[in-house]
Structures are given as C-alpha cells and as structure tokens.
Sequence to fold (179 residues):
Amino acid sequence: MSKSGPTKTTAARAPNKVEDPQLEAFEAAIQLFHRREYAAALPLFEQASQGPTKDLGQTAQLRVRMCQQRIEATRPPLQSAEDYYAYGLTLTDRRKLPDAEAALAKAVALAPRADHIHYALSLVRGLQRNYRGAAESLAKAIEIQPGNRKAARHDSDFHEVLQHSPVRELVYSETIAGH
Fold:
C-alpha cells in the first residue's frame, strides 16, 4: 500500500508538469500584479483569459479589468496640449498606436500651431500604415516649421514611414527644388 501512495501522488502531479500556456500566463501575471506592475501584467491576463479553462479565463478577465482600473488611476491628469503630447509619445513608445493617435489628436486640437505635435502625429499615423494621414500631418508640421522636412529625412523613427508614398514624396520633393 505504501507503494501505491507515491504512484498516485506521482500520477496526480503528472498533469502539472504538462505545459499549460494559459496557467503559465496567469501565474506570471499574478506575480507582476503583486509587484504592482499592472501594465506588464495586463497582456498576460488577457492571454490567460482566452485559454480553454473557463474558470481561469473568467478570473483572468476580472484581473484584466482590475489592471486597467489601476493603470487608469495612475495616469496623470491631462489638461494641456503638452500633457497630451507627452502622453502620446509615451503611448507611441509602448506601441499603443491608436491610443497615441487619440492623445496627439487631442493635443493638436488644443494647440493647432504646434509643429512638433503634428510631426509626432504624422509618425504615429505612418506607423499604423495610414500614409495619407501621415503625409497630411507632416505637411502641416512643415508648413508651420519648414525645418521639419529635413528633420523627418534624418529621423530614424521615420525611416520605415519614408519608404511609402505620399510621405516620401512630401519629404523629398523639396530636396531637388531646394538644391
């Protein structure tokens, strides 16, 4: 009988050794959550919420909402164009491009003559493959501050966007005429 005890215990532990991506994502997210790293935990909880185990998925979905609430609560209050601009840049760095575009669009609405905001909005639109929108925003930035044409040419962040029309034509059209 003592031999059957360890065998059952070993058999009971065997499923835990099988890879379970849903459980692994949830456990990693919980660790991050307890360290108050909500932004890092959020995508792992989202992943765990999509797994096959329904109860775990529901618990993960609850944690997704908790993370979102905590992230939102820690977001600084945005009031000025510069607040929205800085927030848009942060979102761009995190590759949350639709949110970045919304923040930058709000900044443009508050400060329509701020060329640096139009420039950043152009980049975000280009990174989302909205090249027409990128060209429109960059054209406005260039209209306000002509030096933005040259800046975009040499900006490593713009490298991929400049491979596409109409942004490429906008940035390089003056090169020939200007020299």
About this structure: The CA atoms of residues 108 and 117 lie 6 Å apart. The radius of gyration is 24 Å. DSSP finds ten helices and no strands in the chain.
